[in-house]
Amino acid sequence: MGIKLRPDRRWVVLTALLALGACGQKAVQKAPDITVENAWMRPPPAGRNISAAYLTIRNAGGADLLLSAASPLAKDMQMHISTMEDGVMSMDQEDSVTIPANGTVTYKPGGRHFMVFGIKGGLKAGDPFPITLQFEKSGATSVIAIMGNQP
């Protein structure tokens, strides 16, 4: 003995069952788990106050967005990416960078990098250069880049 529905009511019951099933399917988003490592910065050329900084961002959690970088030892820091197209290298500023869930973003020569402008004088190889990265979900993360050649 089963329940019999009129044919015109079957779609109503089916729709209700599907809606109830979807209620329990709330997406669980994992929080980002950001670490920053291998930070270094090239010493500025003699007589100049501009350089580039590099590092690796690892994320063991949900996706996040890198919004900016700053240092008390520089007037400005910008996120840039260099690309090669048809044998021509170009550099573009990035407003933000997605840090994928369980992923890694590497800032390295010839690719993503931080342009550092207005560097305060007197820095030399081996000196620390503090950088604060601002993420959309993780907030501020500080790291010390070491002035010098690639580690």
Describe this structure in words.
The structure is a single chain. By secondary structure, this protein is mainly β. The protein contains 1 helix and 10 strands, in the order αββββββββββ. The protein has one domain (34-147): PCu(A)C copper chaperone (Immunoglobulin-like), CATH 2.60.40. Helix content is 11%, strand content 48%. Strands 1, 2, 3, 4, 5, 6, 7, 8, 9 and 10 form a 10-stranded mixed sheet that branches.
Decide which structural class fits the backbone: mainly beta
Count every helix, treating DSSP H or I runs of 4 or more residues as helices: 1
Label the overall shape: elongated
How many domains make up the 3D coordinates? 1
Q: Mean of residue pLDDT?
A: 87
Helix content class: 10-25%
Q: Might you state the CATH topology name?
A: Immunoglobulin-like
User: Biggest sheet, in brief?
Assistant: 10 strands, mixed
Question: What's the CATH class label?
Answer: Mainly Beta
Uncertain spans: none
- Count of beta strands: 10
**Share in β-strands:** over 45%
CATH superfamily: PCu(A)C copper chaperone
For this structure, the quaternary state is single chain
Helix-strand pattern: HEEEEEEEEEE
